[in-house]
Amino acid sequence: xVQLVESGGGLVQAGGSLRLSCVASARTFSRYAxxxxxxxxxxxxxxxxxxxxxxGSDGSTSYADFxxxxxxxxxxxxxxxxxxxxxxxxxxxxxxxxxAAGAHPxxxxxxxxxxxxxxxxxx
Length: 123
Known about the structure:
Layout: E1 4-7, E2 10-13, E3 18-24, E4 33-39, E5 47-52, E6 61-63, E7 71-76, E8 81-86, E9 95-102, E10 112-113, E11 117-122
Parallel strand pairs: 2-11
Antiparallel strand pairs: 1-3, 3-8, 4-5, 4-9, 5-6, 7-8, 9-10, 9-11
């Protein structure tokens, strides 16, 4: 069982930056692919944002087209942490952001999810 706890959400103006962090409880966290999803206001589904492989993969990163060049995902397995650096934020980035971990590649079917953190970008 892996528990994930996100932090770092908040309110920011368009063009600003936020850094989301997710801390995992399990020492086996490094084995899992991990990443970030978001749930836009009024939507039921969570949309993939960014992912990074675990120790069993090449550790490569992947991004949704709408965040490429603006967001960066990274992990520090010594600290059981995955981070999402979000730059040049837009109002349409407003959403609840979720950390996930599971089999590679991380997907909406990931086994473990955090509780989510709200990101609001004002225009």
